[in-house]
């Protein structure tokens, strides 16, 4: 907690000795220096502590504000440095925090408040992963306050974050990918090309490049180099033909395309009318955004990530059902592509660069998911151990292990 009263020494006129003094700001923000008239350290500290209590009870210091106002001020200062969705999540987390500990002076927040908040979230059934995510947003606001010299230290700096169990990375198997490819071709054939995404091309490009949904939907024809067979992920500015959009986590990056995919893109471009810059935005949807939403000021930076295409999730879920895939998301295609890169020998650094991850830890999760052959190694050790100890499990068990290993490789 930020100290409102500081203890200092004042030299006497002779310069041979000193007395203690209290320095603080009064209720109108004026700097005060109150001499204590003695040099007893313990007594001076007690007086400082008493003055501190008086200030905390009597008023909120000029450099201190209530949590709700602190949150609004912090987000205003941050401006467009964060995504709109991140802003909403931070505001929601802090409001939830205030609901538990009260709208107190932000300088009065201590570690115990954070622990109280965690327990309250657990009691009402929030998952540990959800609580940890909220705490990261709250801690970040206090960290910014430290950086801006509003606080001496982050009161939640040393709080123990709830440890959530690691989720298994969901990727589509080869068989599932083949069924999805067949289902999406049928789905695309039966859709109105002016109103619906060209799903077969979108999924193929996603599987080849590991691009995120928003990156694909904000891709323009200018981002594709047909001669070099590459596609670039570039941020967009507000222009007459394009809307503002930021890349998540990283700067611009260039990704390779295959000759077959380039030809698919050439064919798709030939079928589109002139004047439509986006590769995957249906023409009818583009016209509506340009002619209705943007002129009326109903198109935001957040919309450029979340609302470029209507019914995106609904349509993708239909494709999965047609393919007989029980569960999955469009983002799992990205996970599948990243895992495929690892499985085919690419290094962690190269995958991190291509995937556009800001944290090596994120990339490492995919590496471990692909590289971890713990089950196979444990079974092999068991086979050898049983063979030595019992003598009757060797041949049949080893044969089963070899068959399973061969099957997994295929």
Which strand order does the major sheet show? 1-2-3
SSE string, helices as H and strands as E: EEEHHHHHHHHEEEHHHHHHHHH
What is the CATH C-level name of the largest domain? Mainly Alpha
Query: Outline, from the CA principal axes?
Result: elongated
Count up the domains. 4
Spatial gap, N to C terminus? 60 Å
Q: What share of the residues does DSSP label as strand, in percent? A: 5-15%
Corresponding CATH superfamily of the largest domain: Intergrase catalytic core
Rounded radius of gyration (Å): 30 Å
Output the structural class.
Answer: mainly alpha
- Architecture of the largest domain in CATH? Orthogonal Bundle
Helix content: 40-55%
Mean pLDDT: 86
Can you count the beta strands?
6
Work out the oligomeric state of the chains in this entry: single chain
CATH topology title of the largest domain: hpI Integrase, Chain A
């Amino acid at each position: 907690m930020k100290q409102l009263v500081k203890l200092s020494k004042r030299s006497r006129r002779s310069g041979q000795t000193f007395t203690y003094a209290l320095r603080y700001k009064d209720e109108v923000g004026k700097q005060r220096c109150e001499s204590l008239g003695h040099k007893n350290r313990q007594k001076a500290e007690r007086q400082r502590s008493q003055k501190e209590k008086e200030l905390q009870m009597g008023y909120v210091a000029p450099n201190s504000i209530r949590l709700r106002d602190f949150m609004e001020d912090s987000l205003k200062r941050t401006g467009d440095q964060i995504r709109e969705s991140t802003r909403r999540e931070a505001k929601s987390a802090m409001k939830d925090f205030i609901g538990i500990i009260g709208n107190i002076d932000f300088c009065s927040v201590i570690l115990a408040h954070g622990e109280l908040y965690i327990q309250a979230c657990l009691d009402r059934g929030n998952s540990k992963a959800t609580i940890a995510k909220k705490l990261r947003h709250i801690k970040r606001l206090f960290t910014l306050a430290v950086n801006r010299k509003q606080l001496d230290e982050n009161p939640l700096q040393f709080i123990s974050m709830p440890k959530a169990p690691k989720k298994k990375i969901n990727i589509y198997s080869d068989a599932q990918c083949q069924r999805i490819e067949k289902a999406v071709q049928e789905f695309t054939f039966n859709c109105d090309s002016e109103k619906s995404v060209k799903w077969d091309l979108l999924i193929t490009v996603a599987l080849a490049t590991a691009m995120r949904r928003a990156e694909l939907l904000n891709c323009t024809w200018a981002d594709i180099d047909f001669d070099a067979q590459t596609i670039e992920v570039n941020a967009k500015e507000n222009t007459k033909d394009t809307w503002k959009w930021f890349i998540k986590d990283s700067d611009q990056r260039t990704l390779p395309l295959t000759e077959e995919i380039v030809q698919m893109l050439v064919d798709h471009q030939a079928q589109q009318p002139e004047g439509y810059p986006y590769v995957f935005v249906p023409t009818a949807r583009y016209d509506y955004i340009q002619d209705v939403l943007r002129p009326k000021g109903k198109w935001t930076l957040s919309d450029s990530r979340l609302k470029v295409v209507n019914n995106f999730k609904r349509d993708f879920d239909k494709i999965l059902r047609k393919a007989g895939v029980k569960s999955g998301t469009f983002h799992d295609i990205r996970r599948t592509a990243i895992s495929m890169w690892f499985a085919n020998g690419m290094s962690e650094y190269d995958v991190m660069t291509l995937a556009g991850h800001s944290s090596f830890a994120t990339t490492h999760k995919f590496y471990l998911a692909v590289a971890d052959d713990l089950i196979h190694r444990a079974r092999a050790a068991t086979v050898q151990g049983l063979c030595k100890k019992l003598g009757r499990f060797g041949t049949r068990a080893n044969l089963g292990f070899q068959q399973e290993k061969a099957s997994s490789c295929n």
